[in-house]
UniProtKB/TrEMBL annotation:
<dbReference type="Pfam" id="PF05343">
    <property type="entry name" value="Peptidase_M42"/>
</dbReference>
<keyword id="KW-0031">Aminopeptidase</keyword>
<dbReference type="InterPro" id="IPR051464">
    <property type="entry name" value="Peptidase_M42_aminopept"/>
</dbReference>
<comment type="similarity">
    <text>Belongs to the peptidase M42 family.</text>
</comment>
<dbReference type="InterPro" id="IPR008007">
    <property type="entry name" value="Peptidase_M42"/>
</dbReference>
<dbReference type="InterPro" id="IPR023367">
    <property type="entry name" value="Peptidase_M42_dom2"/>
</dbReference>
<feature type="binding site">
    <location>
        <position position="272"/>
    </location>
    <ligand>
        <name>Zn(2+) 1</name>
    </ligand>
</feature>
<dbReference type="GO" id="GO:0004177">
    <property type="term" value="F:aminopeptidase activity"/>
</dbReference>
<protein>
    <submittedName>
        <fullName>Peptidase M42 family protein</fullName>
    </submittedName>
</protein>
<feature type="binding site">
    <location>
        <position position="359"/>
    </location>
    <ligand>
        <name>Zn(2+) 2</name>
    </ligand>
</feature>
<feature type="binding site">
    <location>
        <position position="103"/>
    </location>
    <ligand>
        <name>Zn(2+) 1</name>
    </ligand>
</feature>
<feature type="binding site">
    <location>
        <position position="215"/>
    </location>
    <ligand>
        <name>Zn(2+) 2</name>
    </ligand>
</feature>
<feature type="binding site">
    <location>
        <position position="250"/>
    </location>
    <ligand>
        <name>Zn(2+) 2</name>
    </ligand>
</feature>
<feature type="binding site">
    <location>
        <position position="215"/>
    </location>
    <ligand>
        <name>Zn(2+) 1</name>
    </ligand>
</feature>
<dbReference type="GO" id="GO:0046872">
    <property type="term" value="F:metal ion binding"/>
</dbReference>
<keyword id="KW-0479">Metal-binding</keyword>
<dbReference type="GO" id="GO:0006508">
    <property type="term" value="P:proteolysis"/>
</dbReference>
Length: 394
């Protein structure tokens, strides 16, 4: 019952007081032992709390509090900056300074217009897909608490021609919150309120899990778990570790720019999701061959520093951690793209978790794959020698 009490603290007590910050977690899940991959109960509890806490891009505060509450037990100090980027430091003053970074925000929508009948029209916040957002349940996050709604959908009986069923654009979507006028709606919501889909964490089968926002709560989870592993080996650490949960990746990699400039690390590892391509209709010749259950991926080229990638590959081999490989195009599409050119250039590398159905309410990942990422990053941190530098030309 001790673990359950801690979860309640995340959901509704202390700093997380209030209806907006409740995760509505399933009691039976918390009492059920985990047998499908070996993840420790406390870590799995943390992952579910993190994923279920709404963190729309630009409004990540609730999720960041969950993250900070967890990592403070493993850090020498924690802090946040003006826009909510959060940092947990271990072995302060060590050298080199290693930044472990992942973004906390999820794709979302925002209230844009309320029509005279009280229906709400939206703008997208990040790469949300209008076609799969129709007929979904949503939560509007207001100053006075959550407001439930549904994204309206016209029944096929009411569409006469094929062209009436064309793919919607974002401005076509409307939300019904059960009111009959703009005046009534405006008592509950206002323009600018963020909106998230009302879908939560579930175990699918074996070690596979499904949720709406693994992108990129799995990253902030992996960073936190790396800190936990390293705290147990603190006496062996030469490097200073800065674990980072940064904001606003989905709208331009913005938080990573801020915190990388502030911290000025000597080397950085970034964690994000990548597209699993092991399901029907995906062109592997175009998008590569990435499979769930075959381990995390490492990306080659571009922002990924060759010597940092080499070290990752060597450690994965030594630790028997399966590793898949990805090629880069012009950019990685992740925070790595902005961290590596900050100031005079920060040697960086991207480690990714295969994720089926990205940017949807049913993202699917392997928890066994996920657990390999903290193991790999902890090994990287422990491999660093005092004052070590990464250069492609020596």
């Amino acid at each position: 019952m001790k673990d359950l009490a801690r979860v309640e603290n995340w959901r509704g007590g202390n700093r997380l007081q209030g209806p907006l910050l409740r995760c509505n977690l399933n009691f039976e899940f918390w009492m059920r032992p985990w047998h499908n991959g070996g993840m420790r109960d406390e870590s799995l509890n943390f992952l579910e709390a993190l994923v279920n806490t709404p963190s729309p891009t630009g409004y990540e505060t609730r999720g960041q509090r969950v993250w900070l509450d967890y990592v403070k037990a493993f850090a020498d100090e924690t802090f946040s900056d003006a826009y909510g980027n959060c940092v947990a430091v271990l072995n302060k003053g060590g050298s080199p300074k290693l930044m472990l970074a992942a973004h906390a925000d999820e794709i979302a929508m925002g209230v844009n217009y309320i029509d005279p009948e009280g229906f709400i029209y939206v703008k997208k916040m990040g790469g949300i897909d209008p076609a799969i957002t129709k007929a979904q349940r949503v939560i509007i996050h207001t100053r006075n608490g959550p407001v439930k709604g549904v994204v309206g959908n016209v029944a096929p009986h009411l569409t006469r021609q094929e062209e009436d069923r064309k793919l919607p654009k974002m401005h076509d979507l409307f939300i019904d919150i059960g009111v009959s006028s703009a005046k009534e709606a405006e008592k509950l919501v206002r323009v600018g309120d963020p909106i998230t889909l009302n879908d939560e964490f579930e175990l699918l089968r074996n070690d596979l899990a499904v949720a709406r926002a693994f992108d990129n709560r799995i990253g902030t989870f992996a960073v936190a778990e790396t800190l936990r592993l390293l705290q147990r080996s603190k006496g062996k650490l030469q490097a200073e570790i800065c674990a980072v949960s940064n904001v606003q990746e989905e709208v331009g990699l913005l938080g990573a720019r801020q915190i990388a400039y502030t911290l000025k690390p000597d080397v950085a590892l970034v964690v994000d999701v990548t597209h699993a391509t092991d399901f029907p209709t995906v062109n592997k010749a175009q998008h590569g061959n990435v499979k769930i259950g075959q381990g995390p991926t490492v990306t080659h080229g571009g922002c990924n520093h060759a010597e940092v990638v080499n070290r990752i590959e060597e450690l994965a081999k030594a630790k028997n951690i399966p590793l898949q490989h990805e090629a880069i195009s012009n950019t990685s599409g992740t925070d790595t793209d902005v961290i590596f050119w900050t100031r005079g250039g920060i040697p960086s590398a991207l480690i990714s978790l295969p994720n089926r159905y990205m940017h949807s309410p049913v993202e699917v990942v392997s928890l066994a794959d996920l657990e390999k990422i903290p193991e790999l990053m902890a090994a990287f941190a422990l491999s660093l020698k005092k004052g070590e530098e990464f250069k492609v030309i020596i």
